[in-house]
Amino acid sequence: MNKKLKILIQKKFVKNIIVLASGTIIAQIITLTFMPIITRLYGPQIYGLMGIYLSILSFIIPVAALTYPTAIVLPPKTNKAINIIKASLSAATFLSIITLGILLIFYNDLAKIFNLESVTNTLFLIPLVILTASVDQVLKQWLIRENQFKVLSKITIYETFIVYGGMVLIGLFFPLATVLIIFVAAKSAVSSLMIVLSLLKNKDEFFKLIINHKENFRNTYQEYSDFPLYRAPQELFNAGSQSLPILMLAALFGPAAAGFYSIGRTALSIPSRLIGSAVNDVFYPRIAQAANADENITELIKRATIILFLIAIVPFGIIMIIGPWLFSLLFGAEWFVAGEYARWLSIWIIFSFATGPSIKALPVLSAQSFHLKYTIFSLVLRILALLTGFYLFESDIVAVAIFSITGALLEIILILITLRISSHYQISKGKELF
């Protein structure tokens, strides 16, 4: 048994997961340390305002560079990767300027729509966040491409400490929604700056390659057009389905409900960040390599999915049983309802946790068109689930329960269809070989 474990740990794929996961584990320990202080300093109403703002950012950031950064790890040749980087940053700059123009005209109306009248001026941070988030995506994908997982691991730790530590330190004197929002908005800038400093310190060729690269990158937009055409809308709708509950709960039940959902979702995302994100970040280049080498990618997806599902059962099972009391103990008595939310959300998150390999596999399987259709379909069902809870039951907890059960069923469907697509993909590749 020990011998098998040693052999497993020595494998490059597993080593990379361990490196990334270790950094994420430390980062989440930092988060868990600061969160009980943050929830007691700010309270559900203020935390809800931050949750609304974060939902807006979560809706925009994934498509800030039209998802071109995701393609950076794919091409074997470095010059093509540099083309993608330049295309990504150009797209992000354009979107940032457009967003600023919209805000200058409609910022008051947007503040009213999203219940952010008390923090209206913070909306003007959004164009800057679009730029910094895009730079952050580009730099992180470059590190993944270069297998610099140790650097990524360290950045995750430092970034988490600075952001959450800042929320606590400033919150001791100014426990305001503006403080939380500024630190949330600054997260990608902090991460980008640290990656840049690390690349300069290690004398990485990244900046030299960018400066000396003279090739016209405009053809890249067409060559990787499936990313903005399919993946970007899919990411947009997926972000919408993630952000929608907070925005709808705020509109239907008030900012406090948004705060309860936000803290519940944040706490439940910790296991995903601990292991899920590390596995998925390493899995993406691994499955791309497997597809190029004609390996059995269906089996690879299946194994990773089962492992993540089994890992998820324990922490989320505990939340299902003692969620409300655990939240009251950790975050304060006023967060009991957040524990009720978390109890239901756990049903969905277990299956969401396991879908990571499927989602990472879809671009490699050239199935982004399907993913877009699926995401639109799932978004519609999630909206109907929340509206059913509001209009038929007039209960925020029932709304979250219906939303979560619907989400779990949708995740199962996604896994099954991805495995089917993968098996057909391999059959078609087999025919090409012969």
TrEMBL record:
Keywords on this record? Cell membrane, Membrane, Transmembrane, Transmembrane helix
- KW Cell membrane (keyword) present: yes
Cell compartment(s), UniProt: Cell membrane
InterPro entries (alphabetical): Poly_Biosynth_Transport (IPR050833)
UniProt entry tagged with the keyword DNA-binding: no
Q: Which residues cross the membrane?
A: 16-38, 50-75, 87-107, 119-139, 306-329, 341-362, 374-393, 399-419
GO annotation, cellular component aspect:
plasma membrane
Q: Topology in the membrane?
A: Multi-pass membrane protein
Q: Name one Pfam family in it.
A: Polysacc_synt_3
Main location (coarse class): membrane
Q: Which PANTHER family match?
A: POLYSACCHARIDE BIOSYNTHESIS PROTEIN, PST FAMILY PREDICTED COLANIC ACID TRANSPORTER
Q: What is this protein called?
A: Polysaccharide biosynthesis protein
